[in-house]
Amino acid sequence: VQLVESGGGLVQPGGSLRLSCAASGFTFSQYAMSWYRQAPGKKRELVAFITSAGGSTQSADSVKGRFTISRDNAKNTVYLQMNSLNPEDTAVYYCYTKVNLRVYWGQGTQVTVSS
């Protein structure tokens, strides 16, 4: 199993970014996917979750209405569209899945929100 995130970077407050996570090594369409983030000095926290077929999503209260998780099972990719970013969103963002009871993480992509 391999998860590779991309799309992070430096953005001004109020800006947008779209993160991507390319998955391989398992049957992507059969597994739920999640995005987590970890800010400096803080615990890693769940940002958003999507079911295997994409029919149901959940997101943390802190990002509701601003972030949207989606997936393209034909491309084995999960996305996180982030709008109205603020400095509190600065963190390393990680892709996550659990396959056959084993947890997998991507290497993370840095998102920095600053003017």
How would you briefly describe this protein structure?
With 115 residues, the protein is an all-beta fold. Helix content is 0%, strand content 53%.
Helix-strand topology string: EEEEEEEEEEE
Counting DSSP H or I runs of 4 or more residues, the number of helices is 0
Q: Level of helix content?
A: under 10%
Beta content:
over 45%
Largest sheet: 7 strands, mixed
The low-confidence runs, each spanning 5 or more residues with pLDDT under 50, are: none
Round the Cα radius of gyration to an integer and report it: 13 Å
Distance between the termini: 37 Å
Mean pLDDT: 97
- Globally, the shape reads globular
| Category by helix and strand content | mainly beta
> What's the count of strands?
11
Structure explained in plain terms:
There is one protein chain. The protein is mainly β. It is 0% helix and 53% strand. The protein has no helices and eleven strands. The chain has strands at residues 2-6, 9-11, 17-24, 33-38, 45-50, 57-59, 67-72, 77-82, 91-99, 102-105, 109-113. The strands form two sheets. Strands 2, 4, 5, 6, 9, 10 and 11 form a seven-stranded mixed sheet that branches. The chain has a four-stranded antiparallel sheet with strand order 1-3-8-7, with no helix packed on it. Strand 9 and strand 10 (102-105) form a beta hairpin.
Reconstruct the topology from this structure.
Elements: E1 2-6, E2 9-11, E3 17-24, E4 33-38, E5 45-50, E6 57-59, E7 67-72, E8 77-82, E9 91-99, E10 102-105, E11 109-113
Parallel strand pairs: 2-11
Antiparallel strand pairs: 1-3, 3-8, 4-5, 4-9, 5-6, 7-8, 9-10, 9-11
